[in-house]
Design goal:
The complex is a heterodimer of chains A (107) and B (595). Chain A has a single domain (3-102), classed as Alpha-Beta Plaits (2-Layer Sandwich). Chain A is 9% helix and 30% strand. Chain A has helices at residues 20-24, 51-55; strands spanning 3-5, 30-32, 38-40, 61-63, 75-80, 84-90, 96-102. In chain A, strand 2 and strand 3 (38-40) form a beta hairpin. Chain A is globular and about 40 Å long. Chain B has 595 residues and is an alpha/beta fold. Chain B is built from 15 helices and 21 strands. In chain B, strands 1, 2, 5, 6, 7, 8 and 15 form a 7-stranded mixed beta sheet that branches. A 4-stranded antiparallel beta sheet of chain B has the order 14-9-20-21. The N and C termini of chain B lie far apart (56 Å). The chains are: A mainly beta (107), B alpha/beta (595). At the A-B interface, helix 1, strand 5, strand 6 and strand 7 of A face helix 9 and helix 10 of B. The complex binds flavin-adenine dinucleotide. Chain A: This is 4Fe-4S ferredoxin iron-sulfur binding domain-containing protein. Chain A: It comes from Desulfocurvibacter africanus subsp. africanus str. Walvis Bay. Chain A: Pfam families: Fer4.
Chain lengths: 107, 595
């Protein structure tokens, strides 16, 4: 069940020729449906690379670990900065961790 | 060029629009090697028309989509390219490898990594500004943005990038490659790329084998390697009679169990030993004679599986010595490369200072930048098909390239291609209409049959192939073992699968792409089985284990090669001799340390 899209937050990147997640997915799995929202056409085919999750400007996508492999309800959310990324992780016991580091050099 | 998916699908071939694109240099696959090829071409000749054809979108495509936490090969001060070749040779048990190719990559790769740093990649340095090494050759990076950084440079240095166009076959003229054909996964158009020289850089082949998590889970693609690299580059060459080398040297790696996460980061970077269920240090206890914790890669990959087989599993990477700071550092490494592994640990509720990380063997991959499967190439990286060059995972004979080596090879292939164009005064070909017609019919057939046709879906065929390869051609469920009879069985069924391609159906363009993915995988799998049959010995346990020939045979200290006979369509197998160029004991990793 990899990407999980929150329909309340997603607007299908209205006005863009392609939504950000549709553009990013290396497996061509994301598309904007008739409802104007993004969807994943085949959850089993997701590589969990999180490219869609990072690309979403509205933080509407969450990556999930398939339940057959891990338990409910862990979370890992990226926040993209200009030259840095911040990750927030919550495990199934509610323990929270934050990681922030530079992912690009200033030029 | 972004493209929104079309709503109206073609109902007949007459509805399919053909687009012709001309280039001096065509690069198929804008991944790591492909991006560097483009930059090199414009650097050497700003007038060279460079066109990239990319199945995905180059900012997040291929192996580097999620990012990287290390550059595995960067030569430190005091060491030489020859030392790197010696190490690389030792990692495959003393060869055979193409030392000529290896050496030329080694001479080039530091410069390619320096390019990445100049373009904005953070390379971790100590207080004195010295690059931090985490192993003998590998350096740590914060590579979450690695692919976008490379892609931006490729975009600046190419004339056209055609995203979401997947290559399906080479364009040929009088036995030489003059471009490629493919279709738009979003726009449904048929693409004809004419080029004076073509570099194939489509990465390796994932999904020939079943991943052990695939059954009835929503994790069919729980693979370590990018599952969207399906081996199309190899398949296109194989179909034109290109010589392939060492396909039997499959890459199998130790990965975290249930979630195929990288383990070198923990075992090398954080010095976490492999232990079995009894808490014994597996490599030191059972493989001391081969170097213990420093054994060649295939030994390290296979050892945990041997423990399971001997009844001593589960196996782990022992992380219980790590301090809280080190755990944080380790998680940042994962966030740079396989971020969902951190999520997996959270989903297991696992504190790795108490519960060590469980490990297992991956499904086998064909991947010429890690092991050495791929096209047989000359020093200019030209394959045996004139006009067709290979770089990165597609090029064979030269293992342990990784990010830096694939980048370096992208440059070397471009130099070879530009030299070929100049020396042969190559012109663009006349378009051969028969070739186009044959390919357009082949490409669109599953779509024209439609999703409701009583046929076979790409998923069904893919799963049949993956099961077959897993059980008969040495997959994870068989602890990588195979024998002559099983391989013959696999080959018989591969032929049956090929005969059934005429039943493939697709309901949309995405499914059409998946149909071609499986067709390409079948062609690569067939060649792979011939290579596994050809090496009648066991040289690299795990990567290549023949239960009917359990020992190494000096007669096979050579390359196993195949080529399709273009008249009979049969795959022919032969050998090529190995040549040692870099002196030294072949099994010793490098010269003894000076102090
Ligand atoms: C998870 C993971 C972690 C790794 N970690 C490290 C590390 O820490 N350090 C290190 O040095 N190396 C690492 N590697 C290895 C390294 O990333 C690869 O060796 C290297 O990036 C491969 O480069 P490439 O250009 O051959 O392939 P890729 O970069 O995968 O490029 C192939 C390109 O071809 C495109 N393509 C495929 N088929 C078609 C088609 N039919 N038509 C058009 N385009 C197509 C793909 O979309 C992709 O863009 C890792 C690899 C993986 C998968």
């Amino acid at each position: 069940m990899p990407p999980r899209i929150d329909p309340k937050k997603c607007n299908g990147c209205e006005g863009r020729e392609e939504s950000h997640c549709e553009e990013a997915c290396p497996g061509n799995l994301m598309y904007v449906g008739e409802d104007g929202k993004s969807h994943c056409r085949s959850l089993r085919d997701c590589w969990d690379c999180m490219s869609c999750t990072k690309a979403c400007p509205r933080n509407a996508i969450e990556t999930r670990v398939p339940y057959q492999l891990g338990y409910h309800l862990a979370r890992l959310t990226p926040l993209m900065g200009k030259n840095s990324i911040t990750w927030k992780c919550v495990d199934i016991h509610g323990n929270e961790e934050t990681f922030k580091y530079r992912n690009r050099m200033d030029k | 060029m972004a493209r929104r998916a079309i709503k109206e699908l073609p109902k007949a071939l007459a509805d399919v629009e053909t687009v012709v694109v001309d280039a001096d240099l065509l690069i198929i696959g804008g991944g790591n090697a492909g991006c560097f090829s483009a930059v090199e071409a414009k650097t050497l000749d700003p007038n060279c028309k460079v066109v990239i054809m990319e199945k995905a979108e180059i900012k997040r495509s291929g192996a580097c989509s999620a990012g990287m936490d290390a550059i595995n090969t960067y030569i430190p001060e005091g060491k030489t390219p020859e030392d790197l070749v010696r190490w690389s040779r030792s990692q495959v048990g003393g060869g055979p490898i193409r030392e000529d190719l290896c050496l030329s990559n080694a001479e080039e790769l530091n410069e390619a990594v320096d390019d990445l740093e100049r373009w904005g990649l953070p390379i971790l340095r100590d207080e004195n500004g010295k690059i931090k090494y985490r192993g003998q050759w590998d350096i740590s990076v914060h590579g979450e943005q690695l692919k976008p950084i490379m892609a931006e440079k490729a975009l600046e240095n190419s004339d056209e990038v055609h995203n979401r166009v997947t290559a399906t076959n080479l364009l040929m003229e009088d036995g030489r490659c003059v471009g490629a054909l493919g279709f738009g996964v979003r726009d449904g158009k048929f693409y004809v790329f004419r080029a004076k020289a073509t570099i194939v850089a489509t990465g390796g082949a994932c999904g020939l084998y079943k991943s052990y998590t695939a059954d009835s889970t929503s994790s069919h693609h729980q693979t370590w390697m990018c599952p969207y690299n399906v081996g199309t580059g190899y398949a296109m060459g194989i179909r034109q009679g290109a010589e392939m080398t060492s396909m039997e040297q499959r890459w199998v790696a130790t990965r975290s169990k249930d979630f195929c996460g990288p383990i070198d980061t923990i075992s090398v970077g954080y010095k976490s030993a492999v232990i079995n269920a009894k808490g014994e240090r597996v490599l030191q206890k059972h493989y001391a004679h081969l170097g213990g914790d420093k054994s060649p890669r295939y030994i390290r990959a296979n050892a945990p599986m041997e423990e399971w087989l001997a009844g001593r599993g589960p196996t782990y990477c022992d992380t219980r010595h790590l301090t809280a700071d080190k755990v944080k550092e380790l998680k940042i490494d994962y966030l740079n490369e396989r971020p969902s592994f951190v999520l997996f640990l959270a989903a297991r509720g696992q504190d790795i200072t108490k519960d060590p990380i469980e490990i297992y063997g991956s499904d086998p991959y064909i991947i010429g930048g890690h092991t050495q499967s791929g096209f047989w190439v000359d020093m200019g990286r030209m394959t045996t098909v004139p006009g067709l060059f290979a770089a990165g995972e597609t090029a064979g004979g030269n293992p342990n390239k990784f990010v830096g080596g694939c980048a370096a090879e992208g440059k070397l292939a471009t130099r070879g291609a530009l030299k070929y164009i100049a020396e042969n005064r190559v012109e663009l070909p006349e378009i051969d209409q028969t070739q186009l017609k044959t390919e357009i019919e082949r490409v669109f057939a599953p779509l024209l049959r439609g999703g409701d046709y009583d046929g076979v879906s790409s998923v069904e065929m893919e799963e049949r192939l993956q099961r077959l390869m897993d059980e008969y051609a040495g997959g994870t469920s068989q602890f990588y073992r195979t024998n002559e009879e099983r391989l013959d069985y696999a080959l018989r069924h591969i032929k049956m699968l090929r005969d059934q391609v005429c039943h493939l159906k697709a309901g949309d363009l995405h499914e059409l792409m998946l149909c071609h993915d499986v067709i390409d995988r079948i062609d690569v799998a067939e060649v792979l089985c011939h290579h596994l049959k050809g090496r009648k010995e066991t040289r690299w346990q795990g990567w290549q284990t023949r239960s009917d020939y359990p020992d190494t045979d000096p007669a096979y200290d050579c390359f196993v090669e195949t080529r399709k006979n273009m008249e009979t369509g049969e795959i022919e197998c032969f050998t090529r001799p190995y040549e040692q160029i870099v002196p030294g004991d072949r099994k010793a990793p490098s010269l003894p340390d000076k102090n």
